Amino acid sequence: MAICDWPEAERPREKLLNKGAAALSDAELLAIFLRTGVPGCSALALARRLILHYGSLKHLLNASREEFCAFPGLGSAKYAQLHASMEMSLRYFQYEMRESDALTSPQASRDYIRLALKGRQHETFACLYLNTQNCIVGFEELFQGTLDAASVYPREVVRKVLDFGAAAVILCHNHPSGCAKVSEADKRITARLAEALNLIDVRVLDHLVVADAEVISFAELGLL
User: Fold this and answer.
1) Domains of the chain: residue spans and CATH
2) 201 phi and psi, to 5 degrees?
3) How would DSSP label each residue in 160-171?
4) Would you state the torsion angle of the CA atoms of residues 117, 64, 53, 12, taken in this order, to the nearest 10 degrees?
5) Mean pLDDT computed over 94-113
6) How far apart are CA 138 and CA 140, in angstroms?
7) For 82-93, what is each residue's pLDDT tens digit?
8) Long-range contacts of range 30-33, CB-CB < 8 Å, 24 or more positions apart?
């Protein structure tokens, strides 16, 4: 049976309009994105197959173009639409951050960083640059690799901070392994950067570590 033949209250699109997007399951949200299914399979059934195949919505969203397009019913057009949707979400959080105080609205910063660094197969070190009112003036990825093997250069971070005219920074990097634990290497590089930036009167407000869906805060752990 096609979704249009279902009782209205059970249709994903109508459910979203009546109850809000948060009321929908991962499969229902994905079905709205897909819009149509394939012969003998509704959009919702296809969405469930996809999530079962990839193991989770997260793994589906992180699939390569080749993996995504190889699944029956998908293709380059759907892949492009999906990544356009994710980029719009990323830019929404970016706009929200720029219009708010990072200290009074920390969740927006966390959501943005989580989206910006999600699905990376390697560690990526980045900085959020803030002005004297603690509003975000920029975000930039600076280094890639592990913090042990690929050096994070304090001199380069200082140069970038000066380029942005920042008064404070929020450091951030990801743990591709998903391990939600601050490492000794994380602590060492944070201390080095804080010391270097202190010489130019720039504060390190926090160091956020993205581990899957979790974001760890150095400030909240008392490590700054």
Assistant:
1) 3-73 (no CATH), 89-217 (3.40.140.10)
2) 60, 40
3) HHHHHT-SEEEE
4) 70
5) 67
6) 7
7) 888 888 877 777
8) 30/57, 30/60, 31/3, 33/81, 33/82, 33/85
Cβ atoms 142, 124 nearer than 8 A: no
- Distances in whole angstroms, Cα of residue 116 to Cα of each of 133, 173, 186: 23, 10, 19
**DSSP structural state of residue 41:** B
State which H helix or E strand residue 190 sits in: helix 184-198
pTM: 0.66
Burial environment of residue 133 by CB neighbours within 10 A (0 to 12, 13 to 18, 19 or more)? exposed
DSSP output for 107-159: HHHHHHHHHHHTT-SS-EEEEEEE-TTSBEEEEEEEEES-TTTS---HHHHHH
Phi and psi at residue 22, to the nearest 5°: -65, -20
* Phi, psi of 97, rounded to the nearest 5 degrees: -65, -45
d(CA 3, CA 156): 55
d(CA 130, CA 205): 10
